[in-house]
Amino acid sequence: MARPAHVKTPEIAERVGTLSAYGIEHTVIARLCGFSHDTLTKYYRDELDTGKAQVIEKIANSLKLSAINGDVQAQKFFLSSRAGWAEKQQTELSGKVEVSEVVFRGVRADPHD
Questions:
Q1: CA separation, residue 7 to residues 32, 43, 59 (Å)
Q2: Bridge partners for 104 per DSSP
Q3: β-pairing, 102-104 with 107-109?
Q4: pLDDT band, very low/low/confident/very high, at 97 (cuts 50, 70, 90)
C-alpha cells in the first residue's frame, strides 16, 4: 500500500523555517518534523532557503526600533556596524622624558647638540 502524499501546512512550514534559521541540519529538521529529507526538500525548499534571512530581518527591525526609540547601545551598534562609525580613544601622556645618549648607525651623538 502506498504512503499518502505529504500535505504542506503553514504550521510545519513555519517550524521548518525556524529550525533552518537556527542552523539545524536538514536531515535533523526532517526527522523532527516526521518525514524524509526528500519530502523536506521537495515541499519546504523556500523555508530552508529563507528561514535564516527572515529571522535576521526580524532581529534587525527590532534593533532599528530600539535605536530609534533612544537605546544608546543599539544606536552605537547600528552606526558602527552599518554606517562605519567608530568611537576613537585618545591616550594622553604627560611627564618628562630624558634622553642621555642617542646612537645612529654605530655613531654616538650628543642629544643636546
A1: 16, 9, 30
A2: 107
A3: antiparallel
A4: confident
Cell output for 35: 518525514
CB 109 within 8 A of CB 103: yes
Instruction: Say how many CA atoms lie within 13 Å of 64 toward its Cβ.
Output: 8
39-71 residue pLDDT tens: 999 999 999 999 999 999 999 999 999 999 999
C-alpha cell at position 100: 642621555
Name the grid cell of 29.
Answer: 529538521
pLDDT 10s digits, 24-40: 999 999 999 999 999 99
Cell numbers standing for residue 37: 529529507
Written in H, E and C, the secondary structure of 36-47 is CHHHHHHHCHHH
DSSP line for 62-93: HHHHHHHTT-HHHHHHHHHHHS----------
